[in-house]
Amino acid sequence: MLKNKVAVITGGTRGIGYATAKKFLSNGAKVVLFGSKEETVSKALASLKDENPDWEVSGACPNLNDAEAVAKEMAKVNETYGRIDILINNAGISDSTGIDDYTSEQFAKIMQLNVNAVMNGVLGVVPIMKAQGGGVILNTSSMVSICGQPGGVAYPTSKSAVNGLTWSLARELGPSNIRVNAVAPGITRTDMVAALPEQMIQPLINAIPIRRIGEPEDIANAFLFLASDMASYVTGEILSVDGAMRT
Ligand code: NAD
Q1: Which ligand 1 atom is at minimum distance from the Cα of 213?
Q2: Residue among 217, 216, 147, 228 at smallest CA distance from 181
Q3: What is the C-alpha end-to-end distance of the chain, expressed in Å?
Q4: Would you say the C-alpha torsion 52, 62, 83, 176 has a positive or negative sign?
């Protein structure tokens, strides 16, 4: 579905980003992972090469909070592969601190990676996509962007901002043949969720109409659809992939 497309995936070293990288590679894309540390990038690349030595995958670790560093790395990818067809802004951090313990710095830290860094990715890739005549930008939102959550207020706030960015950019960039969409995962089995004790997991499953936690591959499949030409008329959409758990 993505033969010869070039994709950049931030936070591609584990969890949803890693599953999406694997899905894209097995669908013919060339993938560049952006991670936060060289060791984790190398480990992810080795593991993907282990799966299939023919996959064209490389990695880098620009500071996503630094717009100039991100733009430089995007330019390098463009130089190496001749284009960037797809950007997935997926790196994100979550939080569950109660309001009484919240600090302004903590709020800013979450907003910085979950929102400002998404914008840095957009700023870095849009000139490249415009010059080549189009592209696809996909963001990782969250179920809680729509309904909020009790505690960790920065996280749903940041993901609501991601939705706003997605809707607005879709409208602004449509005439440049750049589609912009987001996937809003529900509870998905990654390191974010693995930390929860078993007695917390079961009640969560009971609240999911499909009666299971999402797998990273469920989210990767949604990204695959949105990145592919199958979604050629889909833009400005926040696609919920949450087993209908929206409370
Ligand atoms: P994860 O913790 O396994 O992965 C997060 C990724 O972000 C990692 O690759 C990590 O290296 C990267 N990252 C974190 N801080 C970074 C930084 N400062 N610079 C660069 N990269 C950084 O979690 P995940 O569940 O795979 O999360 C991926 C995305 O999915 C996030 O945006 C998250 O908010 C979103 N999401 C997850 C769930 C869930 O239940 N797991 C639900 C909704 C949305």
Answers
A1: 40
A2: 228
A3: 34
A4: positive
Tell me, what's the pLDDT at 247?
61
Q: Measure 90 CA to ligand 1 centroid, in angstroms.
A: 6
Task: Kindly state if the Cβ of 1 falls inside 6 Å of ligand 1.
Answer: no
Q: What separation in Å is there between the alpha carbon of 175 and the centre of ligand 1?
A: 31
Compute the distance from residue 140 Cα to the ligand 1 centre, in Å.
9
Residue 47: pLDDT band (50, 70, 90) is: very high
| CA separation for the pair 44, 47 (Å, rounded) | 5
Q: What percentage of the chain carries pLDDT values higher than 90?
A: 93
Atom number of ligand 1 nearest to Cα 19: 26
| Coil, helix or strand at residue 59 | strand
Average pLDDT over residues 146-164: 96
Whether the pTM exceeds 0.85: the reply is yes
